């Protein structure tokens, strides 16, 4: 439908809706949403919550599905263990994720914010619903906050705070499980706080942070803090699909009056879309508002009204700004989308290749400092080396070392090299090579690290010998 009316000047974009002119917080009391899309969001959030809570307990080859242990610099993604030595793979993975997010946002706007983001899911589908259950819908909540402290207010507020704290503690356990792993978390729980003061301290700190976010800070995470939200303006364009008000059809808005022929547009100015908005905005001001998390609550609210006044649904709907302006159908493959898709395909190919060719272990072999070479009775030359091997699997591996590109022997000093699961093995060994096989004072040699007959990694190092 062609554009007829621009609903409002753009000054609403100069400030955020939850801060008044004096810079004070305007508390948002959103009306309890209901409707088809809200129900779908509930089902999606149940599924995602189950996956989120099952994540730390789900293991692949004994390793968790996801663990980001920044303390020990150990990362597990889909059961694959990454060490800081895999930094370049992590960089490519990170770049791939960033391009994927940009591509997704260019095409579908903030659909992630409304349907998948843990902040929205916990806020709107967990904490907010508990609040509705205890304090009632928005008018009752407002009245409760205004009333003086009495038995009813104290009872309701303490019930809410207690439940919020318990859920925050639960989320904090989950969060920690994704950092240190469920086994370590179980140790903190079973051994008691005194045995794990740092871990227990972290649990309390996270609990406090989550409680503060969900009980007080709320939508400001999306409107003020979230970097993804801040970047919307540069990622989206007029072809991006967003939750938008069809001003061509809705304007000029006007109240519905009995026994009066309607000359205005379809918007009856009932404010239902504004009342349900969890970020406190009016979607009718214009598309692509910074605070809009595309939660679709206003879509449901307006569709309800449209059904009542017997007008077609979709006055507020998923639509691109361009489609609203021109009435043309939404096109997926724009040059920008094709460009991002090509970059994403290249990055995905690189990432897959790196993952498929990644060794199960990584060895660092260095000549022992302060040692030159030794001559044996047979006239062979010996060098002493230090070896450090990192295990990227969850299996213990006894290791043997062999020269790959030269004849010679390797003798490990002391105990056999055993590489513990997810761990590091260190040792010292002699390499002995016939003098005739050396290429000079400083020869390149390649050493293979074997688990049984399987060559798990190779590494190059220097071998010192006499000048002639
Ligand atoms: S404007 Fe609509 S979609 Fe956007 S945050 Fe508010 S209710 Fe959700
Ligand atoms: S809910 Fe629909 S009809 Fe009511 S004010 Fe919003 S856009 Fe207009």
Task: Provide a descriptive summary of the structure in words.
With 468 residues, the protein is an alpha+beta fold. The chain is built from 16 helices and 16 strands. The chain has helices spanning 36-54, 87-108, 111-115, 118-135, 138-146, 151-180, 182-191, 197-217, 220-225, 227-230, 232-235, 247-250, 272-275, 297-308, 321-326, 335-356; strands at residues 59-60, 63-64, 66-69, 74-77, 80-82, 241-245, 316-320, 361-367, 373-375, 380-391, 397-403, 409-413, 417-419, 424-434, 442-451, 454-464. Strands 8, 9, 10, 12 and 14 form a five-stranded antiparallel β-sheet that branches. It has a four-stranded antiparallel β-sheet with strand order 13-11-15-16, with no helix packed on it. Strands 3-4-5 form a three-stranded antiparallel β-sheet. Strand 1 (59-60) and strand 2 (63-64) form a beta hairpin. The protein starts with 35 loop residues before the first helix and ends with a strand. The protein binds iron/sulfur cluster (2 copies). One iron/sulfur cluster binds at residues 245, 250, 267-273, 284, 301-302, 305, 315-316.
List strands and helices in order, with pairings.
Elements: H1 36-54, E1 59-60, E2 63-64, E3 66-69, E4 74-77, E5 80-82, H2 87-108, H3 111-115, H4 118-135, H5 138-146, H6 151-180, H7 182-191, H8 197-217, H9 220-225, H10 227-230, H11 232-235, E6 241-245, H12 247-250, H13 272-275, H14 297-308, E7 316-320, H15 321-326, H16 335-356, E8 361-367, E9 373-375, E10 380-391, E11 397-403, E12 409-413, E13 417-419, E14 424-434, E15 442-451, E16 454-464
Antiparallel strand pairs: 1-2, 3-4, 4-5, 6-7, 8-10, 9-10, 10-14, 11-13, 11-15, 12-14, 15-16
Helix pairs in contact: 2-16, 4-6, 6-7, 6-8
């Amino acid at each position: 439908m062609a554009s007829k009316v621009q609903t409002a000047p753009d000054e609403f974009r100069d400030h955020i809706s939850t801060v008044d002119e004096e810079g004070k917080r305007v508390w948002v009391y959103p009306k309890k949403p209901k409707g088809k899309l809200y129900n779908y969001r509930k089902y999606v959030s149940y599924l995602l919550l189950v996956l989120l809570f099952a994540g730390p307990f789900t293991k692949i080859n004994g390793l968790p599905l996801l663990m980001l242990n920044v303390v020990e610099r150990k990362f597990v993604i889909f059961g694959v263990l990454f060490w800081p030595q895999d930094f370049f793979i992590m960089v490519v993975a990170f770049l791939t994720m960033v391009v994927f997010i940009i591509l997704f946002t260019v095409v579908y706007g903030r659909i992630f914010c409304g349907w998948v983001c843990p902040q929205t899911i916990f806020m709107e589908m967990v904490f907010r619903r508990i609040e509705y259950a205890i304090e009632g819908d928005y008018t009752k909540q407002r009245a409760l906050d205004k009333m003086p402290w009495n038995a009813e207010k104290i009872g309701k507020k303490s019930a809410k705070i207690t439940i919020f704290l318990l859920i925050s503690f639960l989320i904090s356990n989950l969060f920690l499980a994704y950092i240190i792993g469920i086994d370590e978390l179980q140790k903190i729980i079973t051994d008691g706080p005194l045995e794990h003061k740092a871990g227990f301290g972290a649990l309390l700190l996270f609990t406090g942070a989550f409680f503060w976010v969900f009980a007080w800070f709320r939508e400001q995470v999306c409107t003020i803090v979230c970097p993804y939200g801040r970047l919307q303006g540069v990622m989206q364009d007029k072809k991006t699909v967003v939750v938008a008000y069809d001003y061509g059809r809705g304007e000029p808005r006007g109240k519905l009056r009995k026994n009066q022929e309607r000359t205005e547009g379809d918007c009856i100015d009932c404010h239902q879309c504004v009342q349900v908005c969890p970020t406190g905005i009016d979607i009718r001001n214009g598309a692509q508002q910074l605070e809009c998390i595309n939660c679709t609550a206003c879509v449901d609210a307006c569709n309800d009204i449209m059904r009542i006044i017997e007008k077609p649904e979709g006055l507020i709907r998923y639509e691109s700004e361009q489609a609203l302006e021109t009435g043309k159908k939404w096109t997926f493959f724009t040059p920008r989308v094709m460009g991002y898709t090509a970059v994403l395909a290249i990055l995905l190919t690189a990432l897959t290749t790196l993952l498929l060719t990644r060794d199960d272990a990584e060895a660092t072999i260095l000549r022992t400092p302060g040692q030159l070479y030794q001559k044996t009775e047979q006239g062979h030359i010996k060098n002493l080396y230090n070896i450090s091997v990192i295990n990227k699997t969850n299996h213990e591996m006894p290791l043997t070392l062999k020269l790959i590109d030269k004849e010679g022997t390797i003798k490990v000093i002391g105990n056999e090299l055993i590489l513990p699961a997810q761990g590091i093995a260190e040792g010292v060994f002699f390499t002995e090579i016939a003098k005739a096989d050396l290429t000079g004072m400083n020869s390149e040699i390649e050493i293979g690290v074997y688990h049984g007959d399987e060559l798990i990694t190779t590494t190059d190092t220097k071998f010192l010998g006499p000048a002639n």
